[in-house]
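Z., the sequence and structure:
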Amino acid sequence: MIRNILAVLSGIIFGILTIGIVESIGHKIFTVPQEVTQTIENADTDAVFALVSSEILLFVLVAYIIGSFVGGFITELISKRLLLAVVTGSILMLGGVLNLFMIPHPIWFVLVSILVYIPFAWLGGLLSKKIINHL
């Protein structure tokens, strides 16, 4: 039981760290226009997303995908239970939904981002299971 809890916690931590690292790489690749900083200070999120390019949002989406995959991979690697990789993906998704409530996003991003966490955590867990079975 403790192993399973630690596996999910580890998956969540590694998933969040991966998301943060990938997003920071994205911020270095895609510079945010100066107007965004001024608009953020005025708390006008609609105007912010009008200024932010789709490439930046796509990179954030890629960060969610990679982070979920890594989280699921780590969870299954430790727990040896594929279902717990899905639990990790679900918890990461809840964090993503909280973010979507705190900062309004374009509707396409909301719909797609909610759909990526669980399947990619499952795929990460599946890959981990296949690698372990071959060792």
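Residues 2-134 form one domain. Residues 2-29 form the longest helix (28 residues).

Let me know what you think.
H.
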